[in-house]
Amino acid sequence: MTSREDVLRTWWEQLGSAVGEVVNQSDPEGLLDMGAPQDEYSSEIDSLTSLAVREDLTERSVLAVWERAFGPGSCLSQRPELLTSLTQQLLAVREERPSP
């Protein structure tokens, strides 16, 4: 029998994986295109997954995560259309995976 904890852990992992796919495909800083390792954005993905779990995904919260890592001059902060697109994609991921 699967425990509630196992169900939540699986959900978190699936949500985190989906968030990671969105971030890596967006590659907001262009680091993956420059040859950075696939886990380059792992800490940001973890933070964004936490926001998704708390249902606190807004452009402002996504940008705050990003600026903690890359500073106020990050590509994401300089390209509002990219921020909007990334936030919308993350919201869609969250909507597709309601909490168990």
Give an overview of the whole structure.
By secondary structure, the chain is mainly α. It has one domain (4-28, 38-96). The chain has helices at residues 4-26, 42-53, 59-70, 75-78, 80-96. The longest helix has 23 residues, at 4-26. The mean pLDDT is 94.
Give the radius of gyration.
14 Å
pLDDT averaged residue by residue: 94
The percent of residues in helical segments reads 55-70%
Number of helices: 5
Percentage of β-strand residues: under 5%
- Sheet with the most strands? none
Q: What would you call the shape?
A: globular
As residue ranges, the low-confidence spans are none
- Count of domains: 1
Class per helix and strand makeup: mainly alpha
What is the helix/strand order?
A: HHHHH
First-residue to last-residue Cα separation? 16 Å
Number-wise, the strands total: 0
Oligomeric state of the chains present here: single chain
